[in-house]
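A student in our group prepared the protein record below, which I am reviewing. This is what I was given:
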Amino acid sequence: MSQPVEAQSKRTGYPVAAGVMMIVSACLLIVVNLLNIITYPSMVLWRELPIWLGYITFDSLAVVGGVLALIRTRLLFAVFGVSLLIPSSLSYAAFAVESLLLGENITLAIIPLIYVIFTPVTLVLSTLSLIFLAQSKSEFR
């Protein structure tokens, strides 16, 4: 006699890929924010420091959301984490485009160069991870 076949839940690699992409993009944005804090003059630093610390806090929450996506728990927090990454990526991308349009020498200024390199990567990774989370919502507990 044959054994009855149990229905197995289909597990894909989407949550793992989304979690890894979230963690990578959040870490890139944390590096950008830390470079902002290090390179700005002290007068601007004290006025802008709470804003950058808020960005670092949001990026840290996105790292936690990426870890939760890796272990396939708490879909809502994972989506919340990736939704924190997209606006900050867009704001840095806008700053990079503004630097390019104003004619700054991008090769001499390190911070706008970092924005031009990192922000498209973080924006694409964040958007893809949101799509992957939406595709795999049935796999979360």
